[in-house]
Amino acid sequence: MSSVIDAPLDWIESIGDLGLPAKADRRLQELMAHNNEGLLGEKEREELEALAESSERLSLVRAEALHLLAKRPQ
Q1: Cα–Cα dist 33/59, whole Å
Q2: What is the pLDDT of residues 9-24, one digit of tens each?
Q3: Is the model's pLDDT at 46 over the cut of 80?
Q4: Does residue 52 belong to any structural domain of this protein?
Q5: 22 in a structural domain
Q6: In which band, very low, low, confident or very high, does the pLDDT at 4 lie, cut at 50, 70 and 90?
Q7: Cα gap 48→36, rounded to integer Å
Q8: 57, 59, 64, 67 alpha-carbon torsion, rounded to 10°
Q9: Segments in the chain forming alpha helices (H)
Q10: What's the CA dihedral at 58, 32, 29, 33 to 10 degrees?
């Protein structure tokens, strides 16, 4: 089932700019570095997985928004 929802262009553009908050992104980078060094404990591994999943979901939403922007009428 496909639905169409009208949304102001600036809303779609702002979705294209979404990302993790700076603090969460720094933590993600830190955890990834520790993971590469083999230094993660169980709680840190769970935190890394949660942050990575959030980042991936945001990336998918951003990709869809950018896809919609590419399709907009000129």
Answers
A1: 21
A2: 888 888 888 889 999 9
A3: yes
A4: yes
A5: yes
A6: low
A7: 12
A8: -170
A9: 9-16, 22-36, 42-71
A10: -170
CA 52-31-66 angle, 5° bins: 30
Residue with tokens 């060094």: 37
**How confident is the model over 56-70, as pLDDT tens digits?**
999 999 998 888 888
- In the block, which residue shows the tokens 């951003």? 62
Answer whether residue 20 is part of any domain.
yes
Q: How many CA atoms lie within 13 A of 42 on its CB side?
A: 0
Total domains in the chain come to: 1
Paired tokens of 4: 């169409």
* The pLDDT of residue 47: 98
